[in-house]
Structures
1.
Amino acid sequence: MGVNSLLGGNSGVFKSQTATSPMSNRQFRFMVMVSGVLVFGALLTALNVYELHKLTQQHWTKMHDPGEADAEGRGANHYAKPIAWIKGKRMESGYLKHVVNVFMRLGYEVTHNENENWDVLWAHNYPFNELKSTMQKLKPYQRVNHFPGSGYISNKVSLAVSGLPYIPRAFRMPAEKDALLKFSKVNPNMMFVQKSNNHRGIKIEKLDDLDLGTEGSFVQEFVHNPLLIDGYKFDIGVYTIITSIQPLRVYVFMGDVLFRFCPEKYHPFDPEIRDKYVVGDDYLPTWKVPSLTPFYTKFGSGMKSSFDAWLKSQGKSGCQHCVWDSVGDAIRTVFYAKESLFIQSGKSYPKTHNFFEMYRFDFVIDDQLRVHLMEANMSPNLSSQHFKENRLLYEQVVFNYLSLVGVGTAVHTGTVEPQSKDEEDMVVSVTDIAVFPNHCLKNCNASSACEQTQCQLCIPCLSSDTLVDLKLAYREHLARRACKRVVPQAINPDHAHTPSNMDSITPENTLMTEWFRGKCLTDSSFCN
């Protein structure tokens, strides 16, 4: 009975549970469904975390594994830093330290050894002999800091005897010995110096004491009346950048100019004391010239602005513009004179868009504020080991230089190669380079009109090469920072509606000059 009672009791309990089971089953099924959803969500979250982790690992792997390519076939350079190959002798001496610093600040990986994936080559020496095969197989995006034929400007003998304006009269030895002797008889009080390409051992000598039979040298008129500041003679170095040869585009860095003073006062003059008239490695810097010291050290002026302020203090407030305008004209004259030689040298290479170059043009100013071009230096000194204060000048020069030529870009990728046409158009598009819209609509609508010179800048008439040149010119203009264009020449906004006389320049230079005039009409910043 106890058992029955127990069974009966359990049975009662069972019946009671069974009676409420429909509600319990629905609750159970709901709980199971909710639990399933939660479990699925957790699994999905875990999968997403795993995939994100995997992608992150792949990204970093690509950055460090140059052999691996992504799903679109792009290798490590799509993710890694662009590569600057800086090539020179005795790199351990640090003479290119400031170049390295600027490249690294711009996000480059710097190497001193050849790497097939390099983006920019900065070669201290002329690279077209040692690396000729590499230079002839450049990828479209690779850039090199020299132009073929750049020695036609930096060769001291060739430039001195060119007979160009602003260059003191010079005679090539021994070929022009008789002309020199005749010239000296007409100018008996003139002093001369003999120079060669190594530019060492310069000294004023009597003509009878010069070796007029020395091959590879020249004898040049000495500028006997230099402008003096506190009694010191000086020269100025203007950093000059060429970005294109056909058409020609040349800029000068006007953020500052290198001033170097002779360590001894010019008067009383003695040709036996070279430190009175020759600027050497141990020159007197701007900050040690008494009249310039307060401008430079106290009021934050650079070398150029200190000089301009000194001129103003001497009652010559408008004269600095004459000096710098003459400097620009002298540089422009040299490049126009040597342009055809650059073009001929460039024919050995598929494209010249890969190349750019910086020179330092050295001038002397006389006491009438006339400028005299002495030489142009390829791969100018950029080391501040001798004068630590020059660090700022050199790094600003390099930064502005790389910015101008598009190597120091604001669009950061793992290479200087554009990643897409959309990226290119974002930076500069056809709408940015369009000029003379009214003229084009009225006179250049027919397809046959493109044969007319005045229609060749209209968008439907642009050749592919001209389109590339104009886009590069536009980008240079936006990126020029403290650089000033000297070729094409500045345009007077008041005269921009009328084409200037361009009979003496090439058709390519004519088109580029006209394009700047067209842009000048709508944006005055393009005028100069």
2.
Amino acid sequence: MEPAPGPQEKFHLITRNLQEVLGEEKLMAILKERELKIYWGTATTGKPHVAYFVPMSKIADFLKAGCEVTILFADLHAYLDNMKAPWELLELRTRYYENVIKAMLESIGVPLDKLKFVRGTDYQLSKEYTLDVYRLSSVVTQHDAKKAGAEVVKQVEHPLLSGLLYPGLQALDEEYLKVDAQFGGVDQRKIFTFAEKYLPSLGYAKRIHLMNPMVPGLTGSKMSSSEEDSKIDLLDRKEDVKKKLRKAFCEPGNVENNGVLSFIKHVLFPLKSEFVVLREEKWGGNTTYTAYEALERDFAEQVVHPGDLKNSVEVALNKLLDPIREKFNSPELKKLSNAAYPKAKPLEKHTKNSEPENTVVPSLLDIRVGKVISVDRHPDADSLYVEKIDVGDPEPRTVVSGLVQFVPKEQLQDRLVVLLCNIKPKAMRGVESQGMVLCACSTGEPRQVELLEPPAGSCAGERVYVEGYEDGDPEDELKPKKKVFEKLQVDFRVSDDCVAQWKQRNFLTKLGTVSCRSLKGGTI
């Protein structure tokens, strides 16, 4: 039997791979006296994906350190966050989360009997908790509540009051779960500092806060439930895992915003203490790494090829997913999955001997943020540019645009643009164009054209969607005969605030609205 770890070893286990710890001295003081009580909460909104293995891996560390760990299924938070989970689906989604999180923990060898599982509505509707919500609302400013939720609560043009309550409830959870510390992603930092500021005003102790880094998704941005290409679902088939990893951003030698490397660092290495790169003998054979830093160095020096790295992650990931898939193959859990996340009902009305009516929705379009890597004049057409644009695919796309008379070449170079990615490739004066740059156009003469601009801080490959159509899957390739884009484009407009819209619903990324500079009321 292994000896129990001492306070210093416990501190190392609890804090390794974290980005930030608020309250290190208090943490060490508690570990010298007793075991740490900690909780991790998850709002029961979109389907959990493989990035959830990152907090699961840390929960395994907490248990190794002897911590008393509570997992909170924050069902009420899910409803308050701009109704990401409709009230009628709340119970079903919470049950889905309970089953899938437990399956994930079992797949990495975490004993469930050492964990405590709690639902938010088990205590958040009590008289005492409700009274504390009112007490807190009497001292918290609107500014602080909005600021605290800025990176967690869904940001919309006309925010609901419920989103302002969200940070306060999360702060109160620390007191009502009777913990010493809360664990979450670094995107929770503003809520954590909000809790440190306001809990003492109610007479409650300030807690310790432990923060994981945000793991990049497969496109290089944050892995998100609402960004289909950025994440691998826990129930994805093996062929889907292969397809998504093949498209993942993993540039040779580039270790920045590399979701494949980050998954190895934050999930696979902590679980196994090693990682095996699988290669054919003619390319050097398999290599076992016992330190992540050595793998990152070899990748940076291009000793390890992206293709080998992806193939190796695919094998390791499927080993983690196999028991989860098997568990959810039961009729009961299949039924629960379909009920908790029902497929959107099609809008079409079929009539005999006619094409379907009203079948076209914006989620069919694969629109992404792109970064212009190079711009050249078309060799055979003075009015056309030939651009190389990074949209998160393994290779940049070649795009031909008729922008010569509207946008100077130097203004296009290195610029972030909005690109329609699933139109059928088309030869334009001898050069195949693999996408279409979306622009705002004036309605009067002389004709003016401005590029649509994603929010500041966006990354190449991030999904652009229309508000209310976040969850649909885009077509792999639009069929020209169906004229999907043309039917939707009829209702594309620029608002009086210069925001791109479809039927008065904003074009969005996870960072905010897509806009142009000045063409109010224009078309797109």
3.
Amino acid sequence: TDAEVSTRKKTFAEVQTERLDQAERTVLIKCPSKLNEKKLLQYLASHGNVKSHFFFENRGISALIEFSEKSSIASLQDAVGIPSASEHHVVPFKSRLFTFTLKNPVSQHVEETPLHLAPQCHIPVKDLIEKLCLADSISSQMYILLNEYQLTEENIKLRFLACSLVRDFARAYFPDSTVKPFGSSVNTFGKLGSDVDMFLDFRDTGKHATKMKKGPFEMEYQMKRLPSERLATQRILSVIGDCLDNFGPGCANVQKILNARCPLVKFSHQPTGFQCDLSVSNSIAIRSSELLYIYGCLDSRVRALVFTIRCWARVHGLTNSAPGTWITNFSLTMMVMFFLQRRSPPIIPTLDQLKELAGEKDKHIIGGYDCSFVSDLRKIKPTKNTETLDVLLGEFFEYFGNFDFRKNSINLRKGKEVNKPESSPLYIWNPFEQDLNISKNVNQPQLEKFIAMARESAWILQKEDKTQQMINKEPWGLAALLIPFGRNNSSKMKNRMKGIGSETIRSLLDSLKLNNASSQQKAVGK
């Protein structure tokens, strides 16, 4: 029942279904600059009940409007006209994106109540540091960071709407298809301003299976046959990409990257302001999203620690939005999960333990890999661990500052350090595709830089005199860790690098000097 679902934590699938349904009843309106909110809502109500709405800034003011009934959209569309093609010719594709202008703007001299605008990006790091200095503990600093960076309800609605608008194109060819977000948009670890990863799904949700059993005939569609699934994927994405490029209102910079390991179409969706990556259904990626969703829901410390470590890594140039030899956010997130599995008692269960709890419905074998784990959060016993985030943050740096990366790998299935199967500097087992290392791209200098930064951070937290720093109005706790090191302490750094191969120290210190200027830029810009 609905009441029962609302009191317990929803499963990943329930949240997805609900959000996709919400998005289907939603439109996006570019509003006139002097807008009377009450007037707008009054007008919209003539087409049906408006269930929720919010305004945001995106080259002017936009409004996301969620109706209670899908039929209200058709009613509104009937009243909307096609733009007059005086200087431009238009592609007459009718979407759920509208522009409203006032018919007689002069008469609007009423004192406007200013609209509340929902923020769609997070504050710059320097502003964050000021806020952190006002907190009373590292733990509360970490929750402040989490609150500033995590996706808001409004931003999530906008992400699902972007998927739903792309789906309208896919449905022109494939009426049963859906477009769903995966990765950071749905796994509870998404940051404001991050891209939207979406995939096209053709799977009939099992509704046919029962009907097919009836009658004396085996019946199937005649469909075009191609030598490989990859080729089919490439062709479908190529056509959908062309569609978005040629007909999609507000779809700009469409790039088809069809020869990648996972073929995709990149585009910028201007009405919602997102950078989007569209690929064809990847079941394992969805399982990873759900696994992280479960970990994120189990204990509030999980997300606070992940957001903190990722922000820390970004400030120190350990991660980068461009692909390369540095650690990815996904790898960092997995390292945090592993660390939480290693606490005593553990804060989150291992993947094998989640698999033990899996019911019949939770069984998933994908391409020969067992991707089964429990989806009902009520079946997972809460942890008995009571460590504060203050403790966990210091311990994280301590743990990885002294981890034997030469010998050991990180395995979330077992929650144990296991011998490395091959010699990559950093080896993190892919939780599902057991023969893959998700951090294969990381080279030795980048790993050593991570180790050095972790040691430096552990040391700063240990030696710190919080009261003194607060009196002196100096950044303390987490705030002190979000200021690039090495301004005045590259000699101190050298001492703490004793155990690290000297050939990389030089390149490391150089990259630190380089990174100070650029990483602050990046941290602020991203």
4.
Amino acid sequence: EELVAKAIAPVKREYLRPPPLSNVVKEKKSKRQLKRERQQEQKSALHICPEVAKTGNVSSCRYNVNCRFSHDLEAFKAQKPADLEGNCPFCPYGLACRFSGTHKKKSSEMNGLTKDVQKLLWKNKMSFSRADAQLKLLGILQIQPLKKADVSLKLHPREKKLIDFRGKLYLAPLTTVGNLPFRRVCKALGADITCGEMAMCTNLLQGQASEWALLRRHSSEDLFGVQICGAYPDTVARTVDLIDHECTVDFIDINMGCPIDIVVNKGAGSSLLTKPMRMKNIIHAASGTVDKPITVKVRTGYFEGRNRIDSLIADISHWGASAVTIHGRSRQQRYSKLADWDYIYQCASKAPDVLQVLGNGDVFSYLDWDKHKSDCPALSTCMIARGSLIKPWIFTEIKEQRHWDISSGERLNILKDYVRCGLEHWGSDTKGVETTRHFLLEWLSYTYRYIPVGLLDVIPQRLNWRPPSYFGRNDLETLMASDSAADWIRISEMLLGKVPVGFTFAPKHKSNAYDRAENG
């Protein structure tokens, strides 16, 4: 009881061990130094031209001597790292592939950015007729009169396509770690609804390939949405128009709760909670542009102690949103303290029948899920965020109504599935292997916080509990409990081979500082 009161996980005494000595953090490299290293790497024989690697023919590259990559096939073969075990999952990489198995040519992903669309966006020649017509109708945008053919007849809000979220297990959009391979793992473990990582509207409209990658969808994601974030009605409406035209999605979620400074300072994310008229115009413009359901994700308010979503809940429905997800914390609160579920219930009870209300915050066991659903029947479902990062089998636990004392071997198999999906998504050449490793390490910076059920004096584990230093029931379980990046790298080497010389890793999200996980 004393440990729980201090938010320290009550691990059984026989498994406890003294905390390890703190690791010395290496000095971070400057941007100039990193750029110089990248330029040197490109000149290396290991950085083979993709076209030459694919065909095995030096003359196949159209840039010839002007190509910034190496064309020295013999030098590449001499320096290429040893192949990884197993078969190639998906391969357009030819000689650069790190697998010696059969090459597959078919991808099961969709929502890619075509070169034609990218060029139109770069040249600012993309047509947004539906969005511009809606913005003009709302008096938000002054534009030239449109031809009759350009103005599409919009469905009445009640006739819009709807999604029934009730009772479904919803994997939250999670920045960095909620990538396509991770979502595939969660789908296999029981998630019903998945959503892409938050994408910035301005970056999508500029045709940035890295931002468009956040919209990609796997064929296994049968109920899938994308989450976008923007500060103004015109950029959001045009982004919604573009996504509806170029991508296959079931719903579009607008983020109005992201607490990150760089987003808030641009007037987007949770900054919108202080501007209800801007919220109205954004939701109104987006919902009037497309027939797909528009959903919204918010926090309780901007400032702690000054909740305001309950006063806007009916308006959010009238503005055209089909569903709203409420994260039970304010922007100022970030991820400190527990989520305020009583306030979420209050909002759900005030919502009109046509608006589905979803709750979000600290769901970490099937008991949490059951309690929220029974305490507030008006709640459609719960969104699961950080809990899924620490133990993605939470979806299995909820569906099977049990605490799963999962073994370290079973957890390693989940990591193997992730790596397989990662190599399919990011590629099986050296760059793809190292990208997969990077995102695996980002994920491991969360998973170490899981404490096996059999080691706890009190179950279930709570999301805000800090794990003490402990021994697992075998060496692998002990390794998986380590908070050291060196041990996470060891796990990655078990799955992806040795890291390159001089490799270092520091997690993007300091998940061990329990209030700083940067997820919208």
